[in-house]
Amino acid sequence: MERERIMKAPKHPSTQPRLFQVIDMEELVPPHHILRQINEAVDFSVIHDWVAPLYTEKTGRPAADPERLLRLMLLSYLFDHSERELYEILPMHAGYLWFCGLDVESVLHPDPHHPTLPDRTTLVKTRKRWRQHGIFDRLMTYVVDPCIAAGLVSPDVHAAADGTQVRANASIHSLREVKLAPVEPLEDYLARTAREDEQAESPETDRDPDDDPPSPSPPSGERVHAGERGNFRGTTFSNQTHRSVTDPDARLYKKGKGQEAYPRYLVHDVIDVQSRVILSRRASLATGTAERETSLEQLASIRFRHPSITIRTLSADKAYGTTEYLKELFVQGITPLVSLRRKEMEEIPTWKRRAKDPAQEALR
Q1: Does the model's pTM come out above 0.90?
Q2: Where along the chain is composition biased (Acidic residues) (predicted)?
């Protein structure tokens, strides 16, 4: 059989695109894309009423569209982009532009009479301000309530709690030793200020400082602290002695013995096991007790924000299997499904035992 012959394509020195192109942004986004599903399921226009008290109508420059800012923040969260990375990808991604109500022309050639892309610094400052006023907590409740009303979350919830460690945007080389300010008694402070006032009033203070002899220069070859050059050999770090200068809230943390400690945070989730709807999400400092403490706060918050549902059981790993935590679950009427740290069962649980009175024990 003779093989089909295909003519070789001609070689072009350069590709010349069309001078004018008519593009429909709506046709570029697939029907089942997650951004289209979110856009149809959530009404983001409610953000205008939530943030209205944070703005003034008489003074200041015109504010950026809060709905567009919220959509940009959601893109950054869903696809794990930093603000700088998001603004670099945005002109090349038609789905991102469509989700934010923008097009290619509005990004490449901004026009004040058409929707424009807010400045990146505006996005960062707005997110900080909204977080301080609880806008994101309100948004979380706004998204979960329709799931409950639609029946995705049943009235009797079987929940699960867990915490995930997240590395902070800070290098291990940014750690510096914490230097506490000395505590000075009031008497010493008054005595010191009195001496300084006497010296200020003395005639010697009228002398020109240029007449003083120069101070001796420090000896050459003085060794610099290891942390300043990034050489940490033989240096012990802990959260009590060191902090990151770029992110002071980050804490050195690791979950397993084989892991290395890095500046981290913890992100906590309480989800409905059946529907996998996230009922609550919070971030906290990375500490050994943060998972249990934050989950208790989340359970109480769910009861307050969503009174139509009741958490019956809670599944968690071995880190939650402490006596105090299980006791709090029983107090809230929640049955714990938690791996115990010890397999030996006690005849009387610790939280049911009567506290011993040292004075009474001494009389026996």
Answers
A1: no
A2: 198-213
